[in-house]
Amino acid sequence: MPITQLEVAGYRSVRKLVLPVGPLTVIVGPNGSGKTNLYRSLYLLSAAAEGRLAQTLAEEGGVPSVLWAGSRDKKPVRMTVGVTLDELAYELSLGPVPPILDEERKPLSLFNLDPEVKEEHLWTVEGKRRAVLMERKDRTAFVRDSEGNRTTFPAQLWASESVLSQLAEPHRFPRLSELQRTLRMWRFYHHFRTDPDAPMRSPQVGVRTPVLAHDGRDLAAALRTIIEIGDHEALERALEDAFPGSRLEVQAPQGRFSLFLHQPGLLRPLAARELSDGTLRYLCLLAALLSPRPPAFLALNEPETSLHPDLLEPLGRLIVDASMHSQVWVTTHAEPLAQAIAKRSRAEPVRLAKELGATVVEGREAPED
């Protein structure tokens, strides 16, 4: 199910934003404009479907640090993320856990950074009409089952996690199960480890790897998988486009995979431990975008990091080609990358800016509360 619209409210710099999402969406803006916040809001939905909502928010500093930091009205303090997926619309709203105090008004719990899911909804969408498939308030949810009957969700819900992660009878709630599978299959790449101790720089025990790990640790195995069962010709073309005359080699003595790059003028190939951060990051992007198992949705956050400007044009072509198989979301502050993508596609970049501390889309009026 492709994403057609993203709605975010009350999340960091995003006071309220409604954004159409196409087959290839490119978000451009200066540092601090809110690009990563939109990327992270999508990531939160995937984490919620996997049962990692509380942990993911904790890694961002907990609920108090992710809520809208600007002026507020008298409404409850909440953040909301919603997506429209073809004929389904899903929305998750959460806030801080109310303090539980003893008789002396001392806190009984130390978990004051956890989220509390306040509301959660799933609708079918037909034009402007919506029919409720699931409605949650606090720890109780009502769901339409496989026969269309409205029933109480058969469990008391864990307050800090989504209904999607607590689904024990998927056959009873097929639309809820369909959404859960969809969100879990989204793929995100934000940070590839390229420091001297990064696993990708050393031999790693490898298995056939159609999906690159989020940090690139299994890069050698992922590239070898493309060579053996993927589009190896596309890999060779993309490598030639970025590094003319170069050739990849993967060795695996005793099953430990190592990556080497042959380059013109050098008498021996360079091992992964000798390659620059930018070269390794680009090879990771090749493995991610040429995956033999392309995802329905793929998000890249600032893929230009550490790359030489000469690589942005080849990267743009690679991203456009990937959008033929996957819905692709890119956030970037590199205008040349955005223009390289626009030149080969109809994806004009969405430009973000700040107004009174809030993330806005240039040229569009902010949605009313």
Please, could you describe this protein's structure?
This protein is of the alpha+beta class and 369 residues long. It is built from nine helices and 18 strands. α8 packs across α9. The model has no long low-confidence stretch (mean pLDDT 90).
N-to-C terminal Cα separation, in Å?
28 Å
Which segments are poorly predicted (pLDDT under 50) over 5 or more consecutive residues? Answer: none
Secondary structure: helix percent: 25-40%
Shape: globular
Strand pairing plus helix content: what structural class?
alpha+beta
User: Percent of residues in beta strands?
Assistant: 25-35%
Give a brief rundown of this model.
This protein is α+β, with helices and mostly antiparallel strands. It has helices at residues 35-50, 53-59, 63-66, 174-184, 219-229, 232-242, 277-289, 312-322, 335-344, and strands spanning 3-11, 14-20, 24-28, 79-85, 88-96, 115-126, 129-137, 140-144, 150-152, 187-189, 204-205, 247-251, 256-262, 270-271, 297-301, 327-332, 350-355, 358-361.
Furnish the topology, listing elements before pairings:
Blueprint: E1 3-11, E2 14-20, E3 24-28, H1 35-50, H2 53-59, H3 63-66, E4 79-85, E5 88-96, E6 115-126, E7 129-137, E8 140-144, E9 150-152, H4 174-184, E10 187-189, E11 204-205, H5 219-229, H6 232-242, E12 247-251, E13 256-262, E14 270-271, H7 277-289, E15 297-301, H8 312-322, E16 327-332, H9 335-344, E17 350-355, E18 358-361
Parallel strand pairs: 3-16, 3-17, 10-15, 15-16
Antiparallel strand pairs: 1-2, 1-4, 4-5, 5-6, 6-7, 7-8, 8-9, 11-13, 12-13, 13-14, 17-18
